Amino acid sequence: MILFPQPQSLTLNEGTYNLPMKAEYGDLAGFYQKVKSGVSGIRTASAPLLAKEEYRVTVDENGVLLEASCDEGLFRAVTSLHQILRRTEGKLPCLHIEDHPALPRRGYMLDISRGKKPRVDTLKTMIDFLTALKYNEFQLYMEGDCFKYAAFPEENADYDCLTADDIRELDRYCRERFIDLVPNQNSFGHMYTWLKKPAYHHLGLFEGDETPSTLNPLLPESFEFVKKLYASLLPCFSSEYVNIGLDEAYGLGKFQIEEYCREKGKDVVFMEWLNKLNNHIQKTYGKKVMFWADMIYNYPQSYHMVPKDAVALEWGYELIQSQRMTAHCIAYRDAGVRYYVCPSVNTHGALSGRMDVTTFNIRTCAELAVEYGAEGLLLTDWGDGGHAQPWVWSMNPIALAGQYGWNTGAPQDGESFKADFIRNAEIFVNEYFFGGVKLSRLLYRMANYYLLEPERVHVCTMCAKELTLPINQTRYAHLFDIKDSGDDFYFDNVTAYVRKVMADIEKLDFDETYKREIRLTAQLIELGSEICKVKLHPQASAAQAQALADQIDRILPEFTQLWLARNYERGVERFAGYLADRRDELRAL
């Protein structure tokens, strides 16, 4: 492998050309500016007939020629050249590349609302990684306490989070790398953080004393509230798009608006809210909206009500959901609705991810996107349950989705699982982050620990989920009950497996902070596995319970220290609170 993502066409020829790899070439964005200004041995030429991100690279005995029709195309050409330079240390093989993206939009979305709020320098590290993989879109998902909204200064005055100046700095940083930083503010469902506050509780759909998570779309005050959120946020972004969320609005059709929805139809009420927000945003900010499409999956008759230029985001993270996407993609295409497909890194609810599901999910979404005319692929990275997982577990899925968004390759043939894409993504991550140390395959193995668990769980694992549930609770929804999970054998296997993989990782020499994060993940998986055993026979587990409580006392300081190395402090208490609760319950046993 010489280039990743794999280009559409690469021909290797005889000979080499020596362009010494210099220290000032190390930064990709800086190297691009140098190429534009003029670098000895590198020529650029305009090729007006090429598409926006299409490019050609030719290396022969006369030097390097980069051809593109515009700056975006030249930047992608420089990106490829930069990677080859790093790999060859400047001794370039003679070659010819003709390349263009499979999908116009290739994005990554990071949840900064359910725990982790990365600092600006952390986000820049992520952006640089996306840049090297030829992504052109980055979204920061927001629900509540993660941004200093000027309209609500009292709500987050007492803690650090991203500011308007931070967003403008990140927006500028992205633009310099030809990445579109898209605002992503939920504005219907997932409003729990706001609606649990006394001042906004009345804006929700609920009954009794429960805390709502869905806004009441019929209240004028709800619309005014959302308008203030966007007035604080959208002027910070130069993007022509905004993701307004609208997913999992579980209150729709219930409570205060039940009768209204029965008369008009839930789909119509949803579309009324979508169009109301769309019209306001277009008129006030001149932006086009994106929205999660799960609330209209089952209402294709309402697709004609999707606003013109709005983009539906078709998401699904499990094997079955991936398979169901085919019908949805065909329906969007036939109705003339613009849409993306949205797979996941699948780390939320799993601590380390579930890599076999993840690779299937990303591959399926990308192939459907190309076959049925999606405009983009948006890889989601959620923080459900306190966002315990370090970002190191997202690296390989991000690399793999970068490949699929740029070049989907031949359709899946039913037996190979495109293993070359998976392995090449691992090589890229190993070189980019770990100094060439062969770590990624071991990360892949650890991320499949859940295959040893006795039950399969939707978008999470048993060991990870049990860390967030009380010791006296054995059932999780309709999905499993620990009491029906056999005996210790299954969880002993999980513990032994994770320990073995971690022992192999410990032998490797790479960045110490990354190693500590991986080690912490292994300890959390083992803790969850051992807690499952305590739940199987709590009366006989007093000694083991005390040992696990002691283990949590050792984990908590390391968890907090690693968290603070990359993120704002506020939010650490969410998952740390789960661990502290489990510790206290174990002590009580």
Task: Walk me through the structure.
The structure is a single chain. The protein is globular and about 75 Å long. The model has no long low-confidence stretch (mean pLDDT 95). The chain has 589 residues and is α/β, with parallel strands linked by helices. The strands form three sheets. Strands 8-7-6-13-12-11-10-9 form an eight-stranded parallel β-sheet. A five-stranded mixed β-sheet has the order 1-5-3-4-2, with helices on one face. Strands 14-15 form a two-stranded antiparallel sheet.
Secondary-structure topology with pairs:
Elements: E1 9-18, H1 28-37, E2 42-46, E3 55-60, E4 63-68, H2 71-88, E5 91-99, E6 105-111, H3 120-132, E7 137-142, H4 164-175, E8 180-185, H5 192-195, H6 220-233, E9 241-243, H7 258-264, H8 266-285, E10 288-292, E11 311-315, H9 319-335, E12 338-342, H10 355-372, E13 376-381, H11 395-406, H12 419-433, H13 440-446, H14 462-466, E14 475-476, E15 480-481, H15 488-506, H16 512-536, H17 542-566, H18 572-588
Helix pairs in contact: 1-2, 3-4, 7-8, 9-10, 10-11, 11-12, 13-15, 15-16, 16-17, 17-18
The order of strands across the largest sheet is 8-7-6-13-12-11-10-9
Rounded Rg: 25 Å
Number of strands: 15
Overall geometry: globular
| Overall average residue pLDDT | 95
Percent helix among the residues? 40-55%
The structure class reads alpha/beta
In short:
This protein is α/β, with parallel strands linked by helices and 589 residues long. The protein is 44% helix and 14% strand.
